Amino acid sequence: MLAMNYRGPFRVRVDHKPYPEIQHPSDAIVRVTRSCICGSDLHLYHGLVPDTRVGTTFGHEFIGIVEEVGADVQNLKVGDHVLVPFNIACGSCPFCLQELYGNCHESNPEATAVGGIFGYSHTAGGYDGGQAEYVRVPYADVGPMVIPADLHPDDAVLLTDVVPTGYQAAEMAGIKPGDTVVVFGAGPVGIMAAKCAWLFGAGRVIVIDHLEYRLDFVRTYAQCEAYNFRSMNDPVLFLKKTTDYFGADVCIDAVGSDAAGSALQTITGRKLMLQAGSATALHWAINSVKKGGIVSIVGVYGPTDNLIPIGNVVNKGITIRANQASVKRLLPKLIEHVRAGRIDPKAIITHRVPLEEVSDAYHIFSAKLDNCIKPILIPPSARV
Hints:
It is a single chain. The chain is α/β, with parallel strands linked by helices. The protein is built from eleven helices and 17 strands. The strands form four sheets. Strands 3, 4, 5, 8, 9, 16 and 17 form a seven-stranded mixed sheet that branches. Strands 12-11-10-13-14-15 form a six-stranded parallel sheet, with helices on both faces. A two-stranded antiparallel sheet has the order 1-2.
């Protein structure tokens, strides 16, 4: 089968790889119909996440048709078109029973933090992902959900990660009616976090980025304020001034380890790898939020140290909430929001690229070319 093949930082290509096989009675084999490139994939592509191994197939955002099921699978049948959450979750460990599907212990038992994730670093279990024609899906009775007939496939593929992650970013922020919410990052997750902030009653939503085309997009899509930090001497001072010097009620870090805006953070986190990526957005979030405020983190960082102002967290009495989105828990309410027209996930898709051209797609997305917001990959069998 055709599959994306990671060959090292900034080097990906399409290769022929063996078809996946049922390895456990609870597995399913899914023929991919759509997969996405995520901003988190770019962290891998840029070499910022430890233990990303040559030969890995990325892709934790995908939907597809069930081709084969293991002997123990009860909830799926061959021919079902399914939405597959990016979390690989067993459904029965202590964390899954708390609906913390992103922290499943059985799918990634050697880790003390994150559960299994499709197509990511071996720190997340080392599972191959969906930027391929076929993928093995463990615990097939737990994560995958049959796509409702009235749900467009383009909406469904964005419900595997982008929409739930943006929604959970707003949910973890504890937004109260009238709150001022600042979102750092106008990538797909930041765009969705800004959109979802209104669902929780935000009175004002501000997005900070440095790419004008993304700022223009989020202004229209999320009906929010959006500002370019390159035009400011100090984004923290700007945000203080625009909130009567109190600071925002809530700050959301939707950027993670690839953040721009600080020479020190960039050199130590992205160039020399002395910390787990550039923590610029998190630094700004901590310093921009009000005393007693909440910082919600969904931006991805590597599992090592970062340079962040922890003293300010203590002295300001800030609450920090962070996690991988529990997609399975959120899907029912998000599908309701899509059906009601409150969220239009597919509107953020700007590029449809054949799987065979995955290297070009990564370059376009990484280099921010052609006003790219969200690219999806279409395998050959889904184009006939």
